[in-house]
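Hey L., structure's done. Input below.
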Amino acid sequence: MTITLSDQYPIDQSVIPSARSFGRTVTVTDESYVVQKGDLTILLRITDSGLYTLDFGEVQGDFSGQVIRSVVVEATGSGSFTTVGLSPNRTLDGSATQLVLLWNQQQSTFKDIDVVPGGQTPWIDASDHGVLPSLDDNGPPLNALLASVSAGSQGNRQTVYVPPGIYKVATTISHPPNVDVVGAGRRTVFRQSGVITLWDFQSGFLRSRLASVLLQGQGDVNPNDYSLRVGTGIDFSTSQQIDLVEVEVWDFLLGINLSDGTPFASYLRLGPRVEVNRCTTGIRGTDEINASSIVDSRIFFSYGNADEGIGIDLDDPEGFRVENVAIEAADTCVRVRSTSGLLQARILDCFLEPGTNPVTTTVGSIYDIDIASQSDGLEVLRLEGNVASGNNGNIILPPEGFMYVDTYSRAFFGARYDGAAVPKRNLVRNGTLNNWALPDVLPNWAGGGLLPTLAEDQVNFVTGVRSMRVTAPGATGSTIAALFTVSDPGVEWVTCGVRYRVLAGNVGFFFTGSVGGNNAQLNDPTPTPDGEWETRWVQVRVNPTNRAGSVSINPDSVNGTGSVLIDEVWVVPGRYAIPSSQFGERIEMLPAPIVIVNEVGITSLDLFGPIDITDLPALLSPPLSDFSAAPEGVVGGVFRLAVNMTGFADATVLGGPVYAFLNIPGSGATTIPASVHQVMATFGQTLHNGDVLVRGTSLSGGCSLYTGLATDYSVALVAWVMQ
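Output:
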């Protein structure tokens, strides 16, 4: 019986001539010897007489410390070895041509040490089966050897050892079940010849391993000419139960392909000590990746001629973990998509530093994450504990998924990647289309160019009570825009979101977020499947000198056929502050009312305004209390209307109605509009009052009289409405 363990250690050939690294196996005698717990050291050495000696236990003399190494030493004949520490007169059988030494320091109990009879070894040397550095294509002989070993394995893992050398490969190596291929570290090099996948793991449950080798692509001829990179280093598609340990992959178009979307690629364990270097895409995986990981490894120099290089590129892996991996020098360190809504991924404790592409001089990005909303809440993405240095890049996350990205956004005010600033607040009033036809078709929205045709849809909606169908009026550009203002000076970025459904149009539609001339635009050319909704976001830097903004909707007008259904528009303070929210406004009560209008004895229609409630100290005569100055973030107020028909003799006379009213902001006060905030008086000599809430900072209003009898009325601010 031969005991083989996984770890390997380098050999100091100056100490042991002709030594070669393999596993941790000890074969010493033709009888078993159990290493005792006191045997802390196993040392193979040459004695003064020139004989190789195997020592167990403490070693005397100049040598100190543990010896843990795997060696092969060719014997010189019977009697050339003695085994100090074994029972007396035990020597190696002269028929043994090799001595293999192993010891596992970490074991709490020790393994038997058995003989490999008559020159046999616990691995198969590929060089004995025609795999040679001198060949132009080592693919065929290595494939034949691996297939033979796999066929004879009887379900037990066998090991093929490839000695140091550079092995040219023009035929893809096909790695079968139950075979471990082990080299001598980066001294065992497989070199790509032609546009091929260099190493391909076969389909199915393999229980195989690739370790201690270097795979070299053709791109090393000129590492800065990215066009020379071709093919794939390693392909795991449809493979299961595989270990990749101490493997380097260099200079391919794609370093490692985890999955091509065909079921299943699972139980893939990459690392430790896996390096993917100078590949345009380091590691890529689509869906059908299950229960797999890459740990304790490095991805380096993923650049492309068009800035398309990606360190790790994931689309819907179903259970993939990236932990303690350095991704350095890349156009994009991490790219994540969720095409099918099956995303389950974690990226933990990694070092992410994109750097600058030396050919294009473009500064790279840490993230490019765009996860479409599936409205099912099943997507999971967790980015935790990562150390990031450089440009953060773009992150678009669905509000209903389980997302956590613990990197701060660049916005000063509050927002992190994993959600909106607190309290969440939508800067767009009527972004949910709850107000329709009051006082116009669409309050707090405005048209641009030729106004598109607008129609409410009370059947298809998600958030409010309706959606809005926006149709291009012809082959002329048309726009409808939701308006907002960023009043808080601490907000440097806003995130603008739209939930929509593209109904028709050759080029779909686009929407634009804009603040003071700073714009960000997103186009969707694809009609949305029936019954589904898309949710997209853009991030816009706030112009500190002009904080007025809009989210404009533009249906396709190329052929005059564009039509899009809008469910909700929202703007949230902070970069990457994604979730939509209903009005997250709050009421701040004043210590005492501030009387804005106070008229006594009027006998005809009386009007006032417009008044800017954010500038009351300039309107009203001093002295005024400090709280009359509007704080940052005011979007409206609560006003107390009071009216008293003083011209009537007593309170028993029914004389009304008389109205004290506030117009909806901006509607004017020349007539009493159909929709007003109002208090009605019907009895004389009686004070009628009530509080009304107005969103908006420009206020106008007045008092209408039923008769010409004298009437008193007043308007007082009692509370601020705050964002």
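Residues 1-123 form one domain. The two ends are 76 Å apart (CA to CA).

-- N.
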